Amino acid sequence: MDEPVQLTRRGFLKVAAGAGGALLVGFYLPGCSRSDPPAAKTQAPEGSAPIRRDTPDQQDAYAPNAWIRIDPDNSVTLMVASSEMGQGVMTSIPMLIADEMDADWSKVRAEFAPVNKVYNNPLFGRQATGGSTAIRGYWRPVREAGAAARELLVAAAAQRWGVSPDSCSTADGQVTHKTSGRKVSYGELTTEAAKLSPPDKVFLKDPDQFDLIGKPVARLDIPAKVDGSAQFGQDVKVPGMLIATVERCPVFGGKVRSFDATKAKAVKGVKHVVQIDSGIAVVADGFWPALQGRKALKVEWDYGPNADLSSAGIRKQFADAVANGVQARQDGDPAHTIQSASKTLEAVYEVPYLAHACMEPMNCTADVRSDHCEIWVPTQAQTATRSTAMKITGLPAEKIKVHTTFLGGGFGRRSEQDFVADAVSVSKRVGAPVKVLWTRDDDTRHDFYRPSSYNHLSAALDDSGMPVAWIHRIAGPSILARVAPGAVKNGIDSSSVEGAKNLPYAIPNLLVTYAMVNPGVPVGFWRSVGSSQNIYITECFLDEVAKAGGKDPYQLRRDLLANHPRHRAVLELAAEKAGWDTPPAAGTHRGIAVSESFASYCAQVAEVSVDNGKVRVHRVVCAIDCGTVVNPDTVRAQMESAIVYGLTAALMGEITIKNGRVQQGNFDSYPVLRIEHMPKVDVYIVPSNDPPGGVGEPGTPPIAPAVANAVFAATGKPVRKLPIRIET
Amino acid sequence: MVSLKINGQHHELDVDPSTPLLWVLRDNLGLTGTKYGCGIALCGACTVQVDGVPTRSCVTPLSVVGDREVRTIEGLSADGRHPVQQGWVDEQVPQCGFCQSGQIMTAAALLENNLNPSTADIDSAMSGIICRCGTYQRIREAIKRAAAIKAREVNHG
Question: CB–CB of B128/B77 below 8 Å?
Fold first, then answer.
């Protein structure tokens, strides 16, 4: 805190007085509409669960664009612009602000921000949550807001006492005059502070001055998540609301040819049956009658061009294309090295499409009127939600309000707009507020899947058994070709090659190619994206290389990572804590893997037994270097979570296609990890003052290869295809 | 009319008796702490207690509930301080939180019958409740902690 820092958005810091004598601190961005909707306060309308909705007397409760509100009763309300989908952001972002403010943490509460440019994630340029970016994106600006609030409160106290601000200190929501010992609470200073001009320089704390950052602070959202009061999208209830379910074409890209709603409309409680872009919506006074109505529908489909699509056909498309990919990275001359080497190996690795399977099926509630639209939605993408509504309703941005609820899982799925479009379209058609709720089968069969891929790998070893050449040819569908076609450069989707292109190992001759094949199955972002499959492939093939060269998998990695100290440090930590140099318990085998993703480094060792064709994971040791840690308990929780998510993929996740449709539906055909499969997970965090890295995703990539490599150690057969299936 | 007894309160409802309890709780009574996750008793997010027994409300028609006592997460404790809820807070279990009502109602029923559950007992009792955030390790610890809290309450009660 020796030198003040210039505000990132100097001149745009905004201070205002709020209703009831509150102090509001936020940012003003030029070009922002003055009528951008203010934040909503939680309010329970009569006879329903609490919802977030504005009423005229609450319009003044928040100034537009505020990040911080301090009330005379000393309560501190902090806006969270990111979506809370389990990753703890509703606590970690407030920790950043409150730490710089020296706020009394026991008085801090968090609210989800409305959609507004000032809340954009600086890493995305829009309001969205994904890519493990929340802390990385908001780390600087929200701390500056907190520091500015603190300086205003100090200035107000100093003015009141007629002393220099330098003679004052702050802690626990109070300003203290150091020499006289006089104290005043922040709440008592709000009116005076609101009259002051915002500073254009603020002091940010040095890491050794942090009070909250780095401590295992209890999550703010947990009390509401143990008594049933936390409001998810599914729980939204608006006066006059109807509930809808949509029958979609089972074949990707198919359309309604005709439909007969006579029997559906005869179901008690069914109010409307309407056609929308995604299918036929049955709208009723409850979900159960809507579902009965849907079952009574008769729909004729035009299955379109994908009616014959199958997993085997898709695999053939990939295999036919894989040799002709475009170059994503080339070092040296790998083709020639492999041709002239005495020892070479090659393998084909494959991964399936995967569904996200969020616990909360997709849903959205919309109330479209002629002059405004209000949306309640568990979304990872507020800005996109508003754009979707603008497109369907024709209303301008300032007439659309987006209320973000808690998300019952996100994992990338809730960045999509299909469920928003459903609700806005149906509400517009029927002229009433409508909640559209997907069934589990809808959710599994109409996802944007983690891409399947087909990979041809080859390598050459020198006489000492060290790899000297590595070729990784990838064929698979592109996510960016759909969501951001402009980001596809020279045929390369960066997300398709991440984890492969940035192979960290010191192999002098290296080639990574990508052949884009889009067979018609929609693909999207899935926790850790390209690294979720490419790290499995590269880390397993490296174990094949190690075996061919007579090397220990850990030692080979360590040797090849001499120039990558952060990779190497997590690798060494995981190996040490797992006791890599001691034999595993009888009947168990170890596998190791390391990866860098989302600016964090993670290594895992899995202890596995293979018995009668069944793989059992007993223990996972995880070492994570995510730079500066905001909440270590959240980091631990996210590692546990990322490991479980990746274990489901490694052991059981597989979406298959037949006749253009997904063959899986509910949790019987798309099983996920249950408690009896849960290994003991030990997490070790590398202490660091490096800038924060991502936390939500980096724990997923290493788990599949760590487990697969342990299976390789157990059976002597490499695992070249997920999910892991043991031939007996 | 169908009559139901939920969290100690009587309700008279004009609903088809074949309607699953879940949708009456959620859509008719506003008790949205009980969640819809799969609709066919595979995920456990809809678990409530019927006469103390963990029950999948998504496949339990009102006609089957009859005059038995239904308890939902909203009725587990007046103050959110049931030993299981305390254990859940102490171990910081929930992440997204969506499955947790089902987890907690199942764990509370387990502890009614078993004051000192082993990990195997816990896995067996909790196997039906899916958590996609992977809070299983913390659930095991939280149930053991809740058992200890409950034992203290019994001893002092």
Answer: no
| pLDDT of amino acid A35 | 36
**Is the confidence at residue A66, as pLDDT, over 50?**
yes
Let me know whether A147 and A254 are in one domain: no
Tell which of A270, A675, A676 to mutate to test the B interface (max B CBs under 10 Å).
Answer: A675
**ipTM for the complex shown:** 0.98
Tell me: do A257 and A338 sit in the same domain: no
pLDDT beyond 70 at A65: no
Question: A173 near A104, Cβ under 8 Å?
Answer: yes
Tell me the CA distances in angstroms from A613 to A608, A711, A719, one per residue in order. Answer: 12, 11, 13
Q: Give the closest of B27, B37, B140 to A287, CB-based.
A: B27
Evaluate if residue A727 carries a pLDDT over 90. Answer: no
Question: Considering A226, A244, A272, which residue would you say is the last residue of a domain?
Answer: A226
Average pLDDT over residues A449-461: 98
Q: Are residues B121 and B59 in the same domain?
A: no
Question: How far off is chain A from B26, nearest CA to CA, in Å?
Answer: 8
Q: How confident is the model at residue B30, as a pLDDT?
A: 97
Which residue, of A437, A457, A484, is where some domain finishes? A437
What is the predicted pLDDT for the residue at A161? 98
Residue count of chain B, please give it: 157
How far is it, in rounded angstroms, from Cα B31 to Cα B24? 9
Is residue A291 included in any domain, yes or no? yes
CB contact under 8 A, B94 and A243: no
* Amino acid, res. A45: P
Cα A69 from Cα A74, distance rounded (Å): 10
Whether the pLDDT of residue A286 is over 70: the answer is yes
Residues of chain B whose pLDDT is less than 70? 157
Residues of B in contact with A695 (CB under 8 A): none
Whether A158 and A106 have beta carbons less than 8 Å apart is answered as no
Same domain, A52 and A158: yes
Q: Is residue A41 part of a domain?
A: yes
Q: How confident is the model at residue A53 (pLDDT cuts 50, 70, 90)?
A: very low
The pLDDT of residue A666 is 98
Question: Does residue B70 contact residue B21 with C-beta atoms inside 8 Å?
Answer: yes
pLDDT at A38: 36
Residues in A closer than 8 angstroms to B136, CB to CB, are 644, 673-675, 678
Please write the tens of the pLDDT for every residue from A7-48. Answer: 665 446 888 898 899 999 987 654 433 333 333 333 333 333
Q: How far apart are CA B76 and CA B56, in angstroms?
A: 16
**Structural domain that includes position A298:** 233-304+362-437
* B76 to chain A, closest Cα gap in Å: 8
| Contacts (Cβ under 8 Å, ≥6 apart) of A256 | A249, A275, A279, A280, A299, A300, A301, A302
Domain identity same for A240 and A276: yes
pLDDT at residue A276 above 90? yes
A241/A426 Cα distance (integer angstroms): 12
Mean pLDDT of all residues belonging to chain A: 93
Q: What is the pLDDT of residues A588-623, one digit of tens each?
A: 999 999 999 999 999 999 999 999 999 999 999 999
- Domain match, A344 and A433 both: no
Task: Please check whether residues A222 and A262 belong to one and the same domain.
Answer: no
In sequence order, which residues have a C-beta less than 8 Å from that of residue A309 and are 6 or more positions away? A251, A252, A519, A520, A521, A657, A659, A660
Q: Which residues pair with B13 in a beta bridge?
A: B2
Task: Compute the average pLDDT of residues A307-324.
Answer: 98
By the CB < 8 Å criterion, does B13 face chain A? no
Q: Is residue A286 part of a domain?
A: yes
Structural domain containing residue B61: 2-75
